[in-house]
Design a protein that fits this description.
single chain; about 80% helix
């Protein structure tokens, strides 16, 4: 157990002024909720961007080392999505149905789960680090050695590195998204200061290269965790326990797993497929790996933005779903799709016409910049569709249907491997064929998932002309929630019919 005095996470929902998203201006609520979430996502992305910028001045080998090790930190973050998504959906739906006790239990059990998972994953990755890095068959021993060392540093600080998103998810689910942004932004400031000091050995510190980037990240994340703890302590005067890890309630743990596992599996397999693609690229040397690592961070500008709107839409949809407000769900979905799609188009424009300017920030080698420009042009084709896919996934999460995004994402992401092997043949596109496989499947994912959600919402129980029954959309929900929603829809229809008369 992790001891932190006078802290009771199980009471976190009672400490904050939750936001009611079932009433009021829909665009205003979505924007106010999504902006801090996007800010938090950008802050988390900025940790990696900062590392890449400073390490790029050391050389492409250091960038490649961190890029390779980051696949396994990506695995860890993906596993922890079980707790984060479970907390966001569980807390938002519970508050939407005015059940604060259930919301507190979702919050407490999610924190317990993420800390236990972090400890287990950190222990395994520390022991297996050399074997994990060897998967990529990197001939440069300096790169593989630096990647192993970096991964072990992150493993030592696993609790600090992997648990922050779940803390943020609890507040996001309650409609409070500004606090996680402020705390994570504070951590980023520390990372910005520590990175050059530890990477280059400024002052009394010795030059540590990629190891310095890992240490700076762990220290910064630890500061964020400490700030979360201080916030909990400051707002809770009547405590029932002193342990940040409470006794698990298996009813809620199972529910958290059922909500978060599909999303986690999707992200885990996404990382696995990306590793395979990187291994294919690896036969062309360390430079393409470095370019792809940096390119992925640049591309995160669009999918982090879409992810912010996706999380906001999921929370908004979750509360209105718990309250049975289908009209607000429809309007919120279309408004968010319009905003997210516009952002995707703007990112495509930047990738197509400003690739050199963007990539020059990270690397100065002419060959690397030329290859980076090509990467951004290929991936730029799919940015609009990727934003649509991510945003639609949030709408599915809000209604508790986390499987459709996972099915679409897993199947089409898996298709990247055979498509990459085919397109990367010398008589076709060569190495860029791997990147085209990513872009093509992103387009398909956006189209398929969007159409799937449209099909579902056109069949919901309150739709005119459709019988009031829990088929299709409501089948996986608890009976009492299903009955409550159907009752609300019947009441709405009766009111509308009487007003028409």
């Amino acid at each position: 157990m992790v001891f932190l005095p006078n802290i009771s996470i199980i009471k976190v929902i009672d400490l904050i002024e939750t936001k009611n998203l079932t009433k009021g201006s829909i665009p205003g609520q979505l924007i106010r909720l999504s902006l801090p979430i996007m800010g938090t996502s950008f802050v988390q992305m900025a940790y990696n961007l900062t590392d890449m910028i400073w390490l790029g001045k050391v050389g492409s080998d250091s960038v490649a080392a961190v890029g390779v090790a980051s696949f396994f930190t990506w695995f860890g973050v993906s596993i922890m999505l079980i707790a984060r998504i479970g907390a966001e959906i569980g807390v938002s739906q519970s508050l939407g149905s005015n059940d604060r006790v259930k919301a507190r239990k979702f919050a407490g059990n999610a924190v317990t789960l993420v800390i236990l998972l972090s400890i287990a994953y950190g222990f395994l990755t520390y022991l297996l680090a050399p074997h994990l890095i060897s998967f990529f068959n990197i001939e440069n021993r300096d790169v593989s050695g630096a990647a192993t060392s970096y991964l072990r540093i992150i493993s030592i600080g696993a609790i600090l590195y992997y648990s922050n998103p779940t803390f943020s998810g609890i507040f996001n689910g309650a409609g409070i998204s500004k606090l996680p942004f402020r705390l994570n932004a504070t951590g980023l400031i520390f990372n910005l200061v520590l990175d050059p000091i530890l990477i280059f050995g400024i002052g009394p510190f010795q030059k540590m290269g990629s190891d310095g980037a890992g240490i700076a990240t762990i220290i910064s994340q630890g500061i964020v965790i400490l700030l979360f703890v201080i916030k909990f302590k400051k707002n809770n005067g009547l405590l029932e326990q002193k342990w940040i890890i409470g006794k698990p309630c298996w009813q809620y743990i199972r529910k958290i797993f059922s909500l978060g596992t599909p999303v986690a599996i999707h992200s885990i397999l996404f990382a696995l497929f990306a590793m395979v693609l990187t291994r294919i690229i690896g036969k062309y040397g360390a430079l393409p790996i470095a370019v792809q690592s940096i390119g992925a961070q640049i591309e995160a500008l669009s999918w982090m933005t879409a992810g912010g709107f996706s999380t906001a839409l999921g929370v908004f949809t979750g509360q209105n779903f718990g309250a049975g407000n289908w009209n607000r769900i429809f309007k919120g979905f279309w408004i968010t799709i319009a905003i997210s799609g516009t952002i995707g188009i703007l990112v495509t424009f930047c990738f197509l016409f400003f690739g050199r300017t963007i990539f020059s920030v990270f690397l100065s080698e002419p060959d690397a910049i030329a290859l980076g420009i090509r990467y951004l042009k290929i991936l730029g084709v799919s940015q609009f569709f990727m934003c649509i896919e991510i945003t639609t996934g949030g709408a599915f999460n809000g209604i508790g249907r986390t499987y459709p995004p996972s099915i679409v994402g897993i199947s089409l992401t898996a298709a990247r491997i055979p498509l990459a092997l085919f397109l990367s043949q010398p008589f076709l596109l060569g190495m860029p064929g791997v990147w085209w496989s990513i872009s093509i499947t992103s387009v398909l994912k956006g189209i398929v998932l969007f159409c799937w959600f449209i099909f579902l919402i056109r069949r919901h129980p309150g739709k005119k002309g459709i019988p009031l029954s829990p088929d299709i959309l409501l089948s996986p929900l608890p009976i009492n929630l299903t009955q409550r929603i159907i009752t609300n829809q019947k009441r709405e229809l009766t009111t509308n019919q009487e007003s028409n008369k």
